[in-house]
Amino acid sequence: MKKLEGPLAFIPCLNPKKGCLRIDVCVIHLIWEKLGERMKEFLNTITLKDIIELNHREVEMKA
């Protein structure tokens, strides 16, 4: 996924190029950061082959 889409930042404060002025005092940032880590772990398990196979199954089901 990363090779297709590039680095993932689910909300602006997780984007290292944009950042946030309140990052040091924001509890919500910590929650998003943890969720982002979990989502990245999951997405790292998905291959291009998986995406292609999923697409083929979806197309076959709709045909």
UniProtKB/TrEMBL annotation:
It comes from the Bacteria. Gene3D superfamilies: Winged helix-like DNA-binding domain superfamily/Winged helix DNA-binding domain. This is Rrf2 family transcriptional regulator.
